[in-house]
Write a structure and sequence with these properties.
Blueprint: H1 24-32, E1 37-41, H2 45-53, E2 58-61, H3 65-68, H4 80-93, E3 98-102, H5 112-124, E4 130-134, H6 138-146, E5 151-156, H7 162-165, H8 175-190, E6 195-199, H9 203-212, E7 217-220, E8 228-231, H10 233-236, H11 254-270, H12 285-293, H13 301-304
Parallel strand pairs: 1-2, 1-8, 2-3, 3-4, 4-5, 5-6, 6-7, 7-8
Helix pairs in contact: 2-4, 6-8, 8-9
The protein binds 3-methyl-2-oxobutanoic acid (KIV).
Length: 307
Amino acid sequence: MSFTQLPGSASSSPAATPFPKVTMPALAEMKRQGKPISALTAYDYATARLVDEAGIDLVLVGDSLAMVVLGHENTLAITVDEMLHHTRAVRRAVRRALVVADMPFGSYHGPVAESVANAVRFVKEAGAEAVKIEGPRASLVRALTDAEIPVVGHLGLTPQSVHRMGGYRVQARTADAVQQLKADAIAVAEAGAGAIVLEGVPREAAAAITAELAIPTIGIGAGPDCDGQILVFHDMVSLTFAPPAKFVRRYGDAGALIRSAVEHYREDVEHRAFPSDAESYHLPEQARQALEAKPDAVPGVRVLRKA
Ligand code: KIV
């Protein structure tokens, strides 16, 4: 490769980035410096651009898109090809944040070689900078990092295990379960993961694990003591259709904004208030005069005109 073409270098104009690109090692450095890591999901070009330009450090193309974008009941149905499609869109939008792609259910549960091959597709075909896998799968984390693919682990409430868990339930609610979760987190970290998402676990469990690990923890429903926080974009801006979980804070009401804008547009169309003359294209003056002088010169014009 040419080192004069590095993204963000002075010569990479017009896409030059005046800020340092977030990398996996940069996340570890943020933990060392005690700087909180901000993360959000994004699934398409427009929202990924907004999220990146707002300065979010990590953008996750989460398999939650199966639910919030595609309307599935859970995350299990989404395929590798669908995840790749959305990851490409996000990749095209993001300049600064670290782009992490969720490996979907079934894509890393078979032979290790097949799992690594699926992960390679996210890096090679979609531009992901890391993949996220759910569960305590230390040997797979090792295989992926050996293949130069950075990994984000995901422990606690792992939505792809919904059937085994019997629903979306807070995990690690006993001292033994916390010890097990901590052991799993250590194993995943020692296998080479660059960060671990902790979802749906008691604050005390997340705090203990965060204190134990050198790599950052990123919490969702795991309390304020993690090294970073992540939310599902649609939850955060009220683009969902059910009451939010306890841990969700709504920072805006995009649902209400879009509903009102769409209703207003429909009313304008129905009342012929849209579009206005100013929102219309016009013939150049000469052509307008010629048309007025000979309105029937073009065959078929009469057919288009009202009787
Ligand atoms: O898919 C997703 O959005 C996630 C987050 C909840 C961490 O995995």
